[in-house]
Design a protein that fits this description.
Beta-Lactamase; photoreceptor protein; sensory transduction; about 500 residues; binds biliverdine IX alpha; 12 helices
Length: about 500
């Protein structure tokens, strides 16, 4: 096993964050074996239960709790049937007194883990009732960005938390803050990108299994679990725990950001981690377990609405693609030469394949819009283009890598989606994208002093953003699969038009 203390900024992916042997101090943990004898316990039982209320390792849990409470716990444990299932009980009188507790049970190896925290005022039914109006508000939004903005706003309002961000993972697993609802006076993170390493692989895998995480007080000392290693030689697996102490590297990150408490709620689409609601509070914040449970259900409902929105978005784009086909055909029938069709088709293409510039090169006539190479620069790459396969799209985030002559305009047009539209001489429609380092700019205050901890100043959003910029140096946004599909449709349309025009020209000459 990797020793957590050997984890550095460069090997974060290896930190066993599910086996740190510690929990957060706002609850207590007891792991029992199949006979309900205590196999592990956190060292803070009396802090949570009250003085004198504790149980030794190896003793039966019945020594501590009333028979009624034991019955409740046993039947909850008996309900645990599927992997990663968690059973919750709210407001249980564990000791036959007025002290009430919220309990969560799940299986971990041969043990049942019972996590217990004082019952906070808050009724699950009321928390769940809040979800209905929120969901109907969300369902009104047909497009992704208004949907996620509304979700961030609703979540912030409901949880009364200082900042809610929607953090979306991209294909390369870097991340982007695509929506944000935050207290007025706070610096905003919307639009910023972060490298893959900010949320390491094992953390992302864990967040698929366990949808809700709370870090109630970034400054609180974690509480050890004893024994750290079981008789079988294993530390307790806390993957499904609600109290799991958080990686010290991430704690340092939050501390450097000035964050006092953090919640993150997974957004899962098609079984994959699509993103997170990342929520920050600038002081400690412990949400009642009932409210956390409602927020978890919200995440499941939201994922469904999002899935539907994403599918609809793909269908809409396909429709727009067909629209371009119809328009082009109509214009050509009306006699508009293809090389003059840019003003008409460009705005429609922009909606389906966002780009910063476009070039059209038909029958040796060049026209361009936006951030595209000029005619001379374009003509310089034509031989390179002609040498590529005739009937295939060519998509690159960094075209200069393949065509050195494109280096001359790489500062304006780094990414290219090249659509060849005829055989000899070749005609082209090319969409261009600027380098990402120009389109995504950090808006935060660079003068703001950052505190640094034992791992240096890397663990701050500004340094993360710089780390991300380094990974994309010279590159533009990737052309997505969906965009390539549409471009392929466009290629076929343009080819059809060109063939038709050629036929007409031949017919006229005959
Ligand atoms: C976890 N890192 C996380 C989480 C987020 C981020 C949202 C989820 C845990 C949570 O807070 O609830 C990243 N948070 C961000 C980013 C922003 C933000 C990018 O607010 C931007 C605004 N983190 C690093 C580096 C490492 C690292 C360099 O920055 C390691 C090399 C590790 N991040 C790390 C680990 C976790 C994590 C180990 C898991 C924490 C846990 O669940 O125990």
């Amino acid at each position: 096993m990797t020793n957590p203390s050997n984890v550095t900024l460069s090997n974060c992916d290896r930190e066993p964050i599910h086996q740190l042997g510690q929990i957060q101090a706002f609850g207590a943990l007891i792991a029992v074996n199949s006979d309900w004898f205590v196999a592990h316990r956190s060292t803070n039982l009396e802090d949570i239960f009250g003085r004198g209320r504790t149980v030794e390792i190896g003793a039966s849990l019945t020594r501590l709790m009333t028979p009624g409470a034991m019955d409740l716990l046993r039947s909850a444990a008996a309900n645990l049937a599927i992997p990663d299932q968690v059973e919750r009980l709210f407001g249980v009188a564990l000791f036959g007194t007025d002290d009430l507790f919220d309990c969560a049970l799940h299986s971990s190896g041969a043990n049942t883990i019972i996590e217990i925290e004082p019952h906070a005022a808050g009724d699950l039914n009321r928390q769940l009732a809040v979800l209905r109006p929120i969901m109907s508000r969300l369902e009104k939004h047909a497009d992704l960005l208004p949907l996620v903005e509304e979700a961030a706003r609703q979540l912030r309002h409901t949880l009364q938390i200082d900042r809610v961000m929607v953090y979306r993972f991209r294909d390369d697993l870097s991340g982007e803050v695509i929506a944000e609802a935050a207290r007025e006076d706070l610096e905003k993170f919307r639009g910023l990108r972060y490298p893959k390493s900010d949320i390491p692989t094992q953390a992302r895998a864990l967040y698929v299994r366990n949808r809700f995480r709370i870090i109630a007080d970034v400054e609180a000392e974690p509480v050890p679990i004893e024994p750290g290693i079981s008789l079988e030689g294993e530390p307790l697996d806390l993957s499904m725990s609600a109290l799991r102490a958080v990686s010290p590297i991430h704690i340092e990150y939050l501390h450097n950001m000035g964050v006092g408490a953090s919640l993150s709620i997974s957004i899962i689409v098609g079984g994959k981690l699509w993103g997170l609601f990342a929520c920050h509070h600038y002081g400690p914040k412990l949400l009642p377990y009932t409210q956390r449970t409602a927020a978890e259900l919200f995440s499941e409902l939201f994922s469904l609405v999002l899935d539907r929105t994403l599918s609809r978005q793909i269908a809409n784009r396909r429709d727009l693609g067909r629209d371009i086909h119809t328009r082009l055909m109509r214009d050509v029938a009306a006699g508009t030469p293809l090389s003059s069709s840019l003003p008409m088709i460009e705005p429609v293409i922009q909606q389906v394949i966002p780009h910063d510039g476009v070039s059209i090169f038909v029958e040796d006539i060049y026209d361009s819009r936006g951030s595209a190479p000029n005619e001379e620069e374009f003509r310089a790459i034509v031989p390179g283009l002609n040498a590529a396969a005739t009937s295939r799209l060519l998509a690159s985030e960094q075209i200069a890598e393949r065509m050195p002559r494109a280096t001359r305009f790489a500062d304006r047009a780094a990414g290219a989606l090249i659509i060849p539209v005829s055989r000899t001489p070749r005609d082209y429609l090319v969409l261009w994208r600027k380098p990402l380092t120009q389109t995504v700019v950090w808006a935060g205050n660079p003068e703001k002093p950052v505190e640094t901890g034992p791992n240096g100043d890397r663990l701050t959003p500004r340094k993360s953003f710089e780390a991300w910029q380094e990974t994309v140096e010279g590159r533009a946004e990737k052309w997505s699969e969906a965009e390539l599909d549409i471009a392929e449709g466009l290629r076929v349309t343009l080819l059809e038009i060109i063939l038709r025009l050629t036929d007409e020209a031949v017919a006229e000459r005959a």
